[in-house]
Write a structure and sequence with these properties.
The protein has about 650 residues and is an alpha+beta fold. The protein folds into five domains: about 35 residues; about 110 residues, no CATH class; about 210 residues, P1 Nuclease, CATH 1.10.575; about 70 residues, Immunoglobulin-like, CATH 2.60.40; about 180 residues, Jelly Rolls, CATH 2.60.120.260. The chain is built from 17 helices and 23 strands. The longest helix has about 30 residues. The chain starts with 5 loop residues before the first helix and ends with a strand. About 35% of the residues are buried.
């Protein structure tokens, strides 16, 4: 064999190396092609290496692109990682169905998974397709729609077989989309307490926060959500309407009504803090019944783990998100929780698949994290709603003082006292008076000088009655003082031709009257009133001024009156004298008496001869004074009064009321 030239040897070597390289590339391409035909194919990005999704449950926070969720109600079957797909196929294999049907379903899923591969664009799951194809989303054939529809129905049956939810006669779940009752109550109650609402009223709000879910409530279930993308749902309107009702009651201090309406309002706000309440119209993932199942499982999970897992997120909300518009607060909270909607549905659905048709949400840290964040944020907005209600001040009650004449109650004006607060009122009589009785809410507390209201939880009144210290007054004005503690007596004599009695003492048109009411034949009458007065200073008086009136008599010479001080007559006259005169004119009698610090004054009057019916005297005012240069030792104007022996028995004697 001839030796080849060195140049050819070099050419052959280069050709061999190129052939080896091309063969290696071809093998790699074939291997990749075959790999892509398998179930566990890797997906590639246009601008980088493949980002394999082993399981959506391991991704942490993510979103699903709207080109996927908006394409088909069965999108959730297609949002799956490599291991999720395998688990799904195993789950289908467990169905009690003909192998041919199960294989048909599995083949359609494999085909769709291959046709619509997924990748991550940041934290968003997107179709791993060229941009134009990606924008078209998922387009199912009629056959694919048919198969996925049957698969969806079978999944619904499997969920029903789990015994955790039943379908009613209409074919829809009997579960209403809502936070579970205890969740509503706790959020509303705890947020109210954190904002200083008294426990009684926080409890009223919490108890009423579940009422909007009851049958017959004016705004029914369809309104308990808000989709921030489509701007559909009436939760913001419900929150605003009942918040305004509550505010109106609050301003009028109708506390029970205010917190009842606040409870209603809080329901609509709390609802949209649940991502499931922010887009339930068409695209929450699968069929109506399956969605209700997912929703129910999620809320039952929260309810059953409230104390040990979720209440702490509400307890530690940190701060309030204040608002001047409950409507806008509701839309803002809905927008916040809505970002978790797709991710939450995916997690709950695949949790059910991975657990063989049972929900075990406790082992999904992402579900717990999403729920905790939503509960914390909901509580912050709820605290802001509380502040919207209580902007004009905390719950308070009014204590109103009602002092009578001749004394005061301090403070002298109505006082606002916060719930469970305290306030002491002091009762003070005027000079010459003492406390007779103090009434709290109409109930007598005796002659107390102060009263402490403690743990105030309702409106109250406090009133007082004052009476003069015996003898301490320096004047008596009947239009103001009435008859008070004046003593009195009346008597008559002669032939009685009808009933006879004491008249008064009474108050008539602002003045006092006292006398006799007789039916006599040539008889006589006498009536007296008396009271003791003392000068608080101890100095005493020496002059009295009396204003009154002695009605005219047909026999003015027999119509008499007299005034005594400490048993000594200081004035006496008949109607023939002026005063009192015989023309029924008001008079003023000003007379001196020996100076004394204690004076028992007695007024007497009578008629002789007397017949009937009424002989009385009017009493307007009595005043004591100390006048300089006044001396008196005897009556200046003595009066001859009918002989005492003419006045016989039939006397009456009593104390004025």
């Amino acid at each position: 064999m001839r030796n080849l030239p060195t140049t050819w040897i070099r050419v052959l070597l280069v050709l061999w190396l190129m052939t080896f390289a091309l063969t290696s590339i071809a093998v790699a391409v074939v291997a990749e092609s075959k790999e892509n035909e398998k179930l566990d194919d890797g997906v590639t990005c246009d601008d980088g290496p493949p980002q394999k999704i082993l399981s959506v449950l391991d991704l942490g926070q993510f979103e699903v692109d709207e080109t996927i969720t908006g394409s088909t109600p069965y999108w959730i079957f297609l949002v799956a990682g490599k291991n999720d797909k395998k688990q799904f196929l195993k789950f289908i294999k467990s169905f009690d169905l003909p192998e041919k049907q199960k294989n048909e379903w599995k083949n359609v899923l494999k085909k769709l998974w291959k046709k619509y591969p997924l990748t991550l664009d940041g934290d968003i799951i997107v179709l791993d397709l060229p941009l134009k194809k990606r924008e078209n989303g998922i387009i199912l054939t009629k056959e694919e729609e048919r198969v996925l529809g049957k698969l969806s129905n079978k999944m619904a049956e499997k969920m029903e077989e789990s015994g955790e939810i039943k379908m009613d006669g209409s074919g829809y779940g009997s579960i209403i989309v809502q936070w579970a009752g205890p969740t509503h109550q706790s959020i509303t109650y705890l947020a109210s307490k954190q904002e200083g609402v008294p426990d009684d009223y926080a409890q009223i709000a919490g108890d009423n926060s579940v009422k909007p879910d009851e049958v017959g409530f004016p705004i029914q279930q369809i309104t308990h959500y808000f989709n921030p993308d489509l701007l559909t749902g009436l939760a913001p309107l419900g929150c605003q309407m009942y918040a305004d009702n509550a505010l109106n009651y609050y301003r009028n201090r109708r506390w029970n009504d205010a917190f009842t309406e606040f409870g209603y309002s809080s329901h609509f706000l709390a609802d949209v803090g649940n991502p499931m309440h922010t887009g339930a119209e068409l695209q929450q993932g699968i069929t109506d019944f399956m969605q209700l199942k997912i929703h129910s499982a999620y809320e039952d999970f929260i309810k059953n783990n409230w104390q040990n897992m979720f209440q702490s997120y509400v307890d530690n909300s940190g701060y309030a998100i204040t608002t001047s518009s409950p409507f806008h607060s509701t839309t803002q909270l809905a927008a916040y929780s809505h970002k978790y909607l797709t991710e939450l549905n995916v997690h709950i659905y695949w949790n059910w698949i991975w657990n063989g048709g049972k929900f075990n949400l406790n082992n999904d840290a992402r579900i717990i994290s999403i729920t905790g964040d939503c509960l914390t944020t909901t509580t912050r907005y709820m605290r802001g709603l509380v502040r919207y209600l209580t902007i004009n001040g905390p719950v308070h009650f009014v204590i109103t003082p009602l002092p009578g004449p001749h004394g005061s109650i301090s403070p002298p004006y109505p006082v606002d006292v916060v719930y469970d607060g305290a306030k002491t009122f002091t009762i003070t009589p005027d000079s010459g008076y003492v406390i007779d009785q103090v009434f709290v809410n109409g109930v007598s507390k005796g002659a107390i000088t102060s009263y402490p209201f403690t743990k105030v939880r309702s409106d109250h009144t406090i009133s007082a009655i004052f009476k003069p210290v015996v003898g301490s007054k320096t004047e008596w004005i009947w239009s103001q003082d009435g008859w008070g503690d004046w003593e009195h007596t009346a008597s008559w004599s002669g032939t009685e031709v009808g009933p006879n009695s004491e008249y008064g003492p009474v108050m008539v048109n602002g003045h006092g009257e006292h006398g006799t009411n007789t039916n006599l034949l040539r008889g006589s009458t006498e009536a007296s009133v008396w009271r003791t007065f003392s000068d608080p200073s101890g100095t005493g008086w020496n002059t009295l001024t009396f204003n009154g009136l002695l009605p005219r008599s047909d026999v003015p010479g027999g119509r008499w009156m007299k005034i005594e001080v400490n048993g000594q007559q200081v004035f006496a006259a008949t109607e023939l004298n002026t005063p009192p005169d015989q023309w029924s004119e008001p008079f003023e009698i000003r007379v001196p008496f020996p100076q004394t610090a204690t004076a028992t004054v007695k007024f007497s009057h009578g008629q002789n001869p007397a017949w009937g019916p009424i002989f009385m005297m009017e009493y307007d005012s009595l005043q004591f004074s100390l006048e300089t240069g006044t001396q008196m030792t005897a009556l200046n104007a003595p009066l001859v009064i009918p002989q005492e022996e003419v006045i016989v028995a039939n006397m009456t004697d009593s104390n004025a009321a």
